[in-house]
Amino acid sequence: MQNYREIPVTPNLEEQFDYPVNNFLYDCWVDDYSELKDDTLNCHWHDSFEFGYVLSGSFDYFINGTHFKLKKGDGFFINARVLHMAIADNQEKENQIFGFLFPHTLLTQGSPQLFEKYFQPIIESSIQGFHLQPTTVSQKQLLHSIQSGQRLTPNMPYFELEAITQASKVWKLVVEYVDTQNPMIQAPHRSKEQETKAILSYIYQNYANKFTIDELCKQIGISRSECFRCFKKFTNKKPMEYINEYRLFQASKLLKLSTLSIEEITKKCGFSTSSYFGKQFKELYGVTPLHYRKNNKLKTYF
């Protein structure tokens, strides 16, 4: 049984992460989607700009609900505070994406003029991001610049200086690309994004309670059909499917980190009976809750 890596997020879907070098606002990584449940990077956002380059495999990628296919050699840019998610093709042997991110403050600290001239216009524009393919000179330049970030590691000499150089180079190319190419992933969906954040926030705060989709819609102030459209666009799942999986995910954490009984976990995670909880858990995780606990015991309990 595989232990999957989790993407920590707040109730409004903001990703929580630590930069590898204290107080230096740049991070880089390789995402291996076989380490993620259902080969899926769940919906989230952050204040930083994100860049990615596909090392292997293929993906269905969603930037603020806009869907496109990524294959080896493709790349992407995601604007700050934009919802995004990805699903790897599980028919591929390997699905990996190299990525890095940084906030505008990495390059504009102490210089409001730089922010106003080179960053604010893009942050406040309708541009959510863009899909990069090696089909034009400008896209090839951006892809090469993103790919070259792989040489950076936090323990290398002069990492901070190298990272600032990398970030400056790629951002210059982004500004040039936006000025000349008018990239297409723009947002008629800003309101849908806010609705989705509100829906998911409600679920994260109330998953322990029993509620219907109609009750959820009433709390958010949207129609049932709009709720289903938001879920399809941003999570590629039906509302109850997503809610059930989130409850089971919370239950899996309690099984690992607590000494609570199965009955107590059943109630804490919003399930009506322990038998129904056990059935749902086994369907998703492949083992019973007790078997899962036995094989995933951690030292810290509460």
From TrEMBL:
CDD domains: cupin_XRE_C. SMART domains: HTH_ARAC (SM00342). Residues 197-295 form the HTH araC/xylS-type domain. InterPro entries: AraC-bd, Homeodomain-like_sf, HTH_AraC, RmlC-like_jellyroll, RmlC_Cupin_sf, Tscrpt_reg_AraC-type_HTH. PROSITE patterns: HTH_ARAC_FAMILY_2. It comes from the Bacteria. Keywords: DNA-binding, Transcription, Transcription regulation. This is HTH araC/xylS-type domain-containing protein.
